[in-house]
From TrEMBL:
Record carries keyword Zinc-finger: no
Name of this chain's protein: ferric-chelate reductase (NADPH)
Signal peptide, first to last residue: none
Domain of life assignment: Eukaryota
Stretches assigned to the FAD-binding FR-type domain: 174-299
Entry similarity comment: Belongs to the ferric reductase (FRE) family.
Length: 485
């Protein structure tokens, strides 16, 4: 939880607690205890709505559901506090008579409270990341228990619970319709000797696979989609989100051809581990795609873009780079400079996107200054000297025409592709880029939280990025973070 989320949660909770305790006639227990319960149930439809992939807020504002999840968590945590405030108040009044634990409706309330509390506990990131699939199943079951037993506890406020159930059902229905249309699932309802369309499965490194599927739909660079692979999934309808690592092709759309959708997936545990293991014996796997989702920033109006990725986070930044180069090549963009930074553990990881990255370098027009720096953290690379005056720890990739070689033959000195040993000095890099930038600057980071934190801290410490810097004529800077667990 970052500072912004803490502030939002505390502010949200403070507002609800004020409404719970204000004008309670000298803090009369019965008043604030019941009011806390009413406020908690009033949040229920909102909590469910903000958790859905297809919600009215996203449709009206174009804010991605993953961004709204901050409000979902703030509302849920505040509701948890209100539920316990209500329980404490009823305990203070005494658990007797109609409030006795012998009463069935009171027991229903206890079960509802316990289910919601456990759901909130298991949602804590460290616990959630340890076993995401188990979290997903338990979360659905526990929230369903909260809604059902809450409805049985206080049936007189059923108008607070039924909308939540209806919203959840609507989200499921919309997702099913989207998947049916996108994957043409009606073809498989009536057997014609054909199964689900297969996705190409390719092992690109010891712990990473590249999944390629062809579908006819449109997406923006930086968006993600959910993958359902019935033959690999441990649970029915198990879906996992992955960033689309390829850029949408207008040419394919004009020809009416399906789009090639690429996912770069790091095998860790659960579904991704099973997918990695499947790549050892299989070259394809039947999949269903649900998407696209997300509202990534549009970089078309930024003069300078700094794209920083760690590991498989390149799935997010690489399509943004392709988009900028494509716009510059067609003369539609305003971008003047792009710095693409990728931190990988092994030089072999560059093979994930090597060919496409070389193509992007070659397609880059003279109007766009492009610099590509790839940092290899676990290999020592021999120092090479280049005719354009650039020196550093560089090497070719797998004896191919390397990015470094392209930089000496195809690019001017202002557009270089370098493979370096070690980790980038984020602070120095940002300071250099911002000091010479003009116009709007976008900094987009995708990868581990350590990389995001380092970039955020470096930007805070950089004088060129302070609010007062704009008054000195320096460019306005926007930071966007996509943090992986």
């Amino acid at each position: 939880m970052n500072m912004a989320e803490i502030v939002v949660t505390l502010g949200y909770l403070a507002a609800l607690l004020i409404w719970a305790f204000i004008n309670s006639r000298g803090l009369t227990v019965g008043l604030w205890a019941n009011r806390a319960a009413h406020l908690a149930t009033s949040q229920t439809p909102l909590i469910v709505a903000l958790a859905g992939k297809n919600n009215i807020v996203t449709l009206l504002t174009s804010i991605g559901y993953e961004k709204l999840n901050v409000l979902h968590r703030a509302s849920a945590r505040s509701t948890l506090i209100l539920i316990w405030v209500h329980a404490f108040g009823r305990w203070r009044l005494g658990l007797r008579g109609h409030a006795s634990l012998d009463e069935v409706d009171i027991r229903f309330g206890v079960v509802s409270m316990a289910a919601f509390s456990l759901a909130a506990l298991l949602s804590v990131r460290p616990i959630r990341n340890m076993a995401y699939e188990a979290f997903l199943v338990s979360h659905i079951i526990l929230v369903a228990m909260y809604l059902i037993f809450g409805l049985l506890h206080v049936p007189e406020v059923k108008y607070r619970f039924w909308p939540a159930l209806a919203i959840w059902a609507l989200d499921r229905l919309l997702r099913m319709l989207r998947m049916t249309i996108l994957n043409k699932l009606w073809v498989y309802v009536f057997p014609i000797g054909k199964g689900l369309d297969d996705a190409t499965l390719e092992r690109v490194s010891s712990d990473t696979v590249r999944l390629t599927v062809r579908r006819s739909f449109k997406w923006r660079s930086g968006q993600h989609a959910y993958i359902l692979a019935p033959s690999i999934a441990a649970l029915p309808f198990e879906a996992h989100p992955f960033t689309i690592a390829s850029a949408y092709s207008e040419e394919s759309h004009a020809k009416g051809s399906p789009q090639e959708i690429v996912f770069i997936i790091r095998g860790r545990d659960g579904f991704t581990k099973r997918l990695l293991e499947a790549s050892e014996t299989r070259q394809s796997v039947p999949v269903v795609i649900d998407g696209p989702y997300g509202a990534p920033p549009r970089l078309s109006h930024y003069s300078t873009s700094i794209l920083i990725a760690g590991g498989s986070g390149v799935s997010y930044t690489f399509p943004l780079l392709l988009d900028i180069v494509r716009q510059a090549k067609s003369g539609n963009g305003v971008a003047q400079r792009v710095l693409f930074v990728w931190v990988v553990r092994s030089a072999s990881h560059v093979d994930w996107i090597d060919n496409l990255l070389q193509q992007a370098v070659q397609d880059c027009p003279s109007t766009l200054q492009l610099s590509i720096n790839i940092y290899v953290t676990q290999q020592s690379l021999p120092e090479l000297s280049h005719e354009n005056g650039v020196k550093g720890d560089m090497t070719s990739i797998e004896k191919k025409q390397s990015l470094a070689e392209i930089s000496t033959t195809s690019l001017t000195s202002s557009r270089k592709a370098r493979v370096l040993s070690g980790r980038p000095d984020i602070g120095t890099m940002l300071k250099e880029e911002l000091s010479c930038a003009s116009g709007l600057v976008s900094i987009d980071v995708s990868g581990p939280s350590a990389l995001a934190d380092a970039t955020r801290d470096a930007l805070v410490a950089c004088n060129e990025a302070q609010p007062a810097a704009v008054l000195r004529g320096l460019p306005r800077t926007t930071l966007h973070l996509e943090v992986s667990p």
